[in-house]
Amino acid sequence: MCHGGCGVLVYLEDGEIVRIEGDKESPLNRGRMCAKGRASLEHLNHPDRLRYPMKRAGERGGGKWERLSWDEALDEIAGRLQNIRQEYSPESIALGQGTGRRHFNYVVRLANALGTPNWCEPGCAQCFIPRLNTSVITFGEFFVCDYYGEVNPACILVWGHNPLTSGPDGELQFPLRDSLKRGSRLIVVDPRRSETAEKAELWLQLRPGTDDALALAMLNVIIGDDLYDREFVDNWTSGFEELAERVEAYTPAWAEEITWVPAEKIREAARLFATSRPATLEWGVAVEHTPNCFQTCRALAMLPAITGNIDVPGGWVCGTRPIGFFPFLAENLSNEARDKRLGGDTYRILGGNGAIMPAAHAPTVFRAMRTGEPYPVKAFLVFGNNTLSTYANPREVYASLMNLDLLVVTDIYMTPTAELADLVLPAATWLEADGLQAFPIAADLHVLAQQKLASRWECRQDEDIMIQLAQRMGLEVGTEPLREVLDRQLEPLGLTFEELKEKGHVSPPLRYGKYKEMGMFLTASGKVELCSQMLERLGYDPLPYYEEPPESPVSTPELHEEYPLILITGARIAHFFHSEHRQIPFLRRKHPEPLVEIHPEMAEHLGIVEGDWVYIETRRGKITQRARLTDTIDPRVVSVEHGWWFPEEKGPEHGVWKSNANLLTDNGPPYDPAMGTYQLRALLCRVYPAETGDAGGEHLSETGTPIESGLNKGGYHE
Ligand SMILES: Nc1nc2c(c(=O)[nH]1)N[C@H]1C(S)=C(S)[C@@H](COP(=O)(O)OP(=O)(O)OC[C@H]3O[C@@H](n4cnc5c(=O)[nH]c(N)nc54)[C@H](O)[C@@H]3O)O[C@H]1N2
Ligand SMILES: Nc1nc2c(c(=O)[nH]1)N[C@H]1C(S)=C(S)[C@@H](COP(=O)(O)OP(=O)(O)OC[C@H]3O[C@@H](n4cnc5c(=O)[nH]c(N)nc54)[C@H](O)[C@@H]3O)O[C@H]1N2
Ligand SMILES: [Mo]
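# molybdenum atom complex -> structure
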């Protein structure tokens, strides 16, 4: 359902699903499931699901719909897309989607088949792709923690990540739990004492957005105190001298001022990491939510590199490419079309010639919808994204969507975004879809078959919808049936999809030290590029550096006087996946309302008590959430939840303007120069009690009783 990879057993009686449980033989979850997975039957059978294709019957967002057959819907979309292609150009069609769900690659494929370089998602520049690109640029491969072999990591450095709540992301909630039980020592870098930080031997509570300073200071200690792996560095890396020179000034004392982490603790963490063998880095999305995210990821990637933890048992490992490459059809895109990718010429690691997974720059796409600059974007085909919820600055996003000639939203439910569409298509849930999954994402150590076992109403899986659309439009490519794509990808394993279904999953043996077999890393120099030739060629700094967040007590002291608290948005909630699941009773009961975490001392100072509805305000907007007082957060920092809307409230808005964290964020510059990333964390805000009867009180019928469920607790099932 999410990008999780939990193996499950689904029990059928007379062809109907009656029970779902964790598969004890699955190498990833070993029989366990999270609450979201356990709610799957409620999800599958939910009365509010979209059931048929629909077309709007009145004005955009007017809430009036007319039912269509699939043939009518696909013909209409195909016809209108053809017209837009002819009247404008293929690039004026954009595709949108969300985070790595099953059909992720198919959206990119359809874009290529249509001849448009413009697809985007609210992750990409803010999620995973900076880590992926960093890893590939530095090592030629993507590396993940090895929780799967004989050797357990001796030390795990978890950075900006709370996998004990947010896993399975990279499928690691349960494997990490198991490694900790087997005795891995744990260092956590997080401004909140998260569920993961709770278990740490060393918790570095840094100021949000200063991860680059902390990482550089740890490199300073490891190099300065001669704690690096000389053999590995001498033989397998390039640019070590330059890196050593770069980090010389980044001392722990320097970093203490910036990060709020005591210098001695920085030294201790660096020493523990460097002297544990094997040690591994588990990095999360928090490091990708600032405009210096790319260089932050680069600095972090050097920690396991110079300590010699690359491709060793229990360290940082890469896969062996057990399945064939996905047929993205990138070759179908002309050079001319590629050069027109919105934002690609500026953010070259996101969408230009340095990109591993080229995507358009979302704020530039929305601007083109609104203004026609640099050229008009007239159609947006969305497969699984609640656009008004997860992109920054949703008011501007709203204006962009309202300006389109054609908005098609494929989703499971009628979201506030789907309400704005010209056509809405009903998507299948994970129980109603075939697919191939390989985990951890981009390392592919385990290959699993997802199997279609149910079918509700007229819902169809996204891949089929996209293929049928390509067929209707008479496109030259992207038209072969799903089964053919799956079978071809499985050829290197010597299996067909049917055969993989029989097995459920296969885990090709993990091999280590593959670079030694090859005599090289897959980079231009054949070495781990601490100083990157590719970045230099693209005009970026080849070495990591520190940059103060653009909005902070240091860079904007006057603003800080008006907005004295530092804001984090979007630490993951165990019971929901982004804006999903608010309509599922089993999950919603456990977490009925949006919560903002505030330290009790700060709350007292602000006249706020537990359970109060409060305003959280930045210079961009104001929302309400309920106060959750906790000493797990620094008094100078608050943390709001993202993804909130209220399916039970009246459409078309369904309360999307009340508690939506992104009303507080901005999609404007400064952006990360390489990735085009905007700021979702380390913003400045103020918090004060909401007026009685204002938005908060209307969220739900519940009275003002404090919420007991508590953030990030109890969302999994052993
Ligand atoms: N403020 C703030 N914003 C954030 C973040 C944050 O931390 N803070 N995190 C960012 C990150 S890292 C990410 S990855 C993005 C995530 O953003 P998205 O992944 O786009 O999440 P949603 O916007 O919730 O959209 C998911 C939609 O897809 C629908 N859906 C689920 N499964 C399927 C399916 O199989 N097919 C179809 N067609 N629809 C489906 C759901 O009902 C839902 O409406 O959000 C980003 N936005
Ligand atoms: N249940 C559930 N699981 C999910 C998701 C979901 O919505 N719900 N979303 C999935 C997706 S798309 C993603 S990307 C992953 C993300 O999963 P994670 O990478 O774990 O991301 P978060 O939980 O958002 O944030 C992790 C931690 O970063 C901390 N943090 C905040 N700001 C900073 C900072 O400036 N520096 C540092 N070092 N830490 C900071 C937060 O306090 C939080 O504890 O989760 C995936 N898994
Ligand atoms: Mo994400």
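# post-check
The first strand starts at residue 8 and ends at 13.
Confidence is low (pLDDT under 50) at residues 695-718.
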